[in-house]
Each structure stands twice: as C-alpha cells, then as structure tokens.
Amino acid sequence: xxxxxxxxxxxxxxxxxxxxxxxxxLSVNGHxxxxxxxxxxxxxxxxLNISFQAPDGEIVTHRLKNELxxxxxxxxxxxxxxxxxxxxxxxCIFCFIDQMPHGMRESLYFKxxxxxxxxxxxxxxxxxxxxxxxxxRIIEMHISPVNISVHTMNPELxxxxxKNPDSCxxxxxxxxxxxxGIEINAQLVLCPGYxxxxxxxxSLNELAKIGKxxxxxxxxxxxxxxxxxxxCELKGYDKNSAAKVIDMINDFNFSHYDEFGRNFCYAAxxxxxxxxxxxxxxxxxxxxxxxxxxxxxxxxxxxLFNEAMDEINTCFDDKVAIIxxxxxxxxxxxxxxxxxxxxxGKTVDVFTVVNDFFGHSVTVAGLVTATDIINQIKDxxxxxxxxxxxxxxxxxxxxxxxxxxxxxxxxxxxxVKIILVSDSGADLLYKMM
Length: 433
Fold this sequence. Notes:
The chain has 433 residues and is an alpha/beta fold. The protein folds into three domains: 3-77, Pdz3 Domain (Roll); 97-293, pyruvate-formate lyase- activating enzyme, CATH 3.80.30; 302-432, Rossmann fold. It contains 13 helices and 14 strands. Strands 1, 2, 3, 4, 5 and 6 form a six-stranded antiparallel sheet that branches. Strand 11 (320-325), helix 10 and strand 12 (348-353) form a beta-alpha-beta unit. Helix 7 packs across helix 8 (269-275), helix 9 (297-309) packs across helix 13 and helix 11 runs parallel beside helix 12 (407-414). The radius of gyration is 24 Å and the shape is globular. The mean pLDDT is 89.
C-alpha cells in the first residue's frame, strides 16, 4: 500500500530533498508502509532509505540520517492514521452508541474499534477485527501495553454478549501477546446477570492464569441511557449489586496479592458511588493504570488538588462556578469547601447537572450536554468565570458539546466566561484561583 503525502515541512529532512505535497510514500528501509504504525516503527532508525513516487510517476529514493525521530522527516498525511479508521464488527448488548438518540452529529454514531488508537492514545479494543498477521505485527514491533476490552473470558458468553461469532476466537490472542512479553490492560464492562457474579470470578481467574503480563484489570458498570427501545433488556447496578461486585473483586485481590505484588483488578469509582461505599485510599490503586476507565480518578484528583494547594498562599477574588455531573459533584463540593477553608470569603459554588438528555442513570460529567446545562442553570452572570471539565467537549480544537452546541454559545447563554479544566486536580485548583 502507498500513502499520499499531504504536506511537507520545507525545512525538514524530506523537504530539503525536494519532497513536496503530491508525492507518494512507498517504503522505508525496504518495508512497505501501510499506516502510521508501520511509518513510526520503520522510520525510527538512524539511517533511512526512503522511496517515493513523484507526481510524474518517477520513483526516487533518498538516503537520510535521522536521530530516531520520525517527526524530523517532516511528512504530513491526509489522516493521522494514514488510512481509514477500523470500524467495530460487534453488536454488543451494552453498546453505548446504540443507545444514543437520533439527530446528533454523524461522527458520534461511528463505532470505532481500531487497535492503532489503542497503541497511540490508549483506546480499548476488542481484537475482533484483528488477524494473526496483525497480532504478529504487534509482537514484532513490541507495542506495549495493549488495552483490551475483554468483558468475559468465557468464549460462549463473549459471543452472546458481543453478537459476533468470531469474538471467542480472539481470546487466544491475549495469551499469545502475553507470552511475547506484551503488557495488557484489560477492561470488563459488567452487565448484571451476564458477566458478573460467578462469571466475573471465572474471568478474573482465567486472566490471572495468564500471568504478570496482565498488568491491570478494570471492572466498569454498564452505562444505560433512556434511549434503549428495541435493544436487549439490561438493568443497571443498584446499591446492593454494586457492593457485591466490589466485595468479590477485593476478595480476589486479597487472595492473589502475594502472587502479583499488587491489586489485580479494580472496580471503577462509579461502583463505589452506587454502593455508597468509601472509595479506597490512594495507595490502593498502585500505578493508576486504569484512570481512563474511571478507576481511581476520585483519589488521583483529590491528591493532586491537595498537593497543589499546599504550595499556594494567595488567590484572586474571582467568584467561581463549577459545573459538573452527578457522579463528580460530591468530590467537587469537597474540594471547593477545602479551598474556601484556606481562603475564607472566596466564592466557589458547585452546580450539579442532572442528565435529562441521556437519562438520570447516566451520571458522568463527560456525557453532560450543553442543553441540560442551559436548562438547569440558566444564568451565571453573578460569577466571574465558570469551570467545566474538558471531557464535555469533542476536543480542544473542536469545542462543541454532544448536542452540537459550541462552548461560545454556552458562554453566551449563561452570561459568563467559561474555562476548561483537565482531569488533573492541580489544574482544577489553578483555574479556581
């Protein structure tokens, strides 16, 4: 496969050799380039033989000295991946995209299951659209860690839950990757009555048998919206069922701690909130490998906030509003109260947005829409600024909410300056000042 070049930095290694937009990248050191993984792996060499096809069809090869930095070549392509995203081949009974209402922007309905995004950005993938050749490439390039949406280690149950007859076959890939020294972070989206209870215990035991290449396992509760007409009947977790999941995981960790020297599986913070149990201490989460799955986010945010607050002695007199979802609201109130105790007279108020758009069972801040914020808060003109988590937006470049309302539109509706906050507790503190 050849890859069209969109742009070339004229001051780069390739730019100085006369390579321009319109050239086609053919190979690096004799290896055909199919996508960004090939490019980054084979271009990560001190000596490069790179072949191109010029717009007039001429094949040219340049020898370059490089300092193990593909970026120094200066090549830009039509897409970051250098080809199309790989779509999902599954029809999981718990798929969140199937539970979204009609009329949202088209890109939100694309089901992504691209292993390359796992390697590059930490996305979780099911492996169902990968072949033996793909697995061999991971091993050859020693791409590690790999983030895998396992859900269950029971082959028949995996087929039942993912509605893909091939989904059971790829479980063998996990052992193959582990045997090659590839680290694996595993994810289990738990659905009551399906893959929890005895099935959860079975999956944990099977993953533990694979060994220390399984560096972490996250158990996440299924997310259910009010838009489930015609879909598989599922129920969410309540106080008692969430507590049972936590207890099972903690018992398993206790019995396997000496074997792994750490906790093996971690329940997402949402389980603790549903069970009304105290979230474990900071040390429980070891190296916080599963933050992206909502595991340990509470303690991590709290710790970084308190650490940063120990270093400050003054702040501005701005009146601050914090906008968040139901799940994070107790933490935001706890941190804002600690801040006000250190700086008496400072105004910091937390506004909790209930998710009317997706349904009240959806409580995470990342799924709060601008429409719900506008309808429930209405006006913040009494404040100097409002803070919102950046996960509410599509990206820092495209500042739009899930309901296609822009950040500027929301700011105008609420009559307040809006500031984005990352998931770092320190960033929250600095934006509050």
